[in-house]
# Entry
Amino acid sequence: MSNAQSSSQSTRAPVGSQISIIRPDDWHLHVRDNEALKAVVPFTAKQCGRAIIMPNLTPPVTTTEQAGAYQQAILNAVGKNSDFKPLMTLYLTDSTPAKEIKNAVASGIISAVKLYPAGATTNSDAGVTDIKKCYQTLEMMQTLGLPLLVHGEVTSQDIDIFDREKIFIDQRLKTLVKDFPELKVVFEHITTADAADFVTESSPYVAATITAHHLLMNRNDMLVGGIKPHHYCLPVLKRETHRETLVKAAISGNSKFFMGTDSAPHSKHNKETACGCAGMFTAFAAIELYTEAFDKAGALDKLEQFSSLNGPLFYGLDANSDKITLQREKWTVPDSYPFGDDVIIPLRAGKTINWKLV
# Structure
């Protein structure tokens, strides 16, 4: 790091300051498929060395063979001149066989398995209805060292949407990590102080990703002054006290927390409708948004560990070998980006971001 503050107690970096960090990775990313894939994945390939690719397509990616075909489609969309590596995942269902986990690990293609509670989010209808049905598969994952990535929300209609992450911890996650103490578990896109505390207090086998938008925004940003559909995501934005705790976790230096954008692109039509899709598109400026969050917290010196070191450490990989440079410079986000036959509205469309990739 150069020409910027190096103390978490310092004020924000002055305009024109630059920082250089090891190239980051995105440990939670949606890139869709077909024309939508071609529109969005180059943004991540420009910034990140690797990304964990979510498997919730229609139909979902449930086999190693499907994941291999999806990986090739991503590489084709990125182009031959990129060193970007998509890390593939399988979509866990009630009937995922343990032998598929053996195939996945033997292939070298699969980096993790994703648990969606059925009905929890976009394209999750084929997800898990009862985690007990997956215990034989989870046992194989624990034996072979394949991580489980968890969307941590209960789906019961009688549970308030703002409480679903906390209830999931109490009713599901505590039991899961107790029953499989050496299974690597990533609590995805955590949004509450309850989740941050759970991860901090759990064994080294439990980690978490945190999005840029949950570091920068609270539920007022979605609801005050009119409902903002492009700020609607799952899990939803929470109270300011939760955002503050997430920031503290991200800048703490604790290796259990790392970057996962949960960038989830949907067309403008599918967001601005009577029943809009959940997800924010942030991949176009992922590292800039994280840098802004760390700058606001006076913790730019912690950014590299969170974005570039902690994730590889948990997954047993080397950090990327090259670096990127960012400059504190305001720039205006485009109103939209092409997205197949429609457009996608990025986070902060028409507004400014305070850091820019050089």
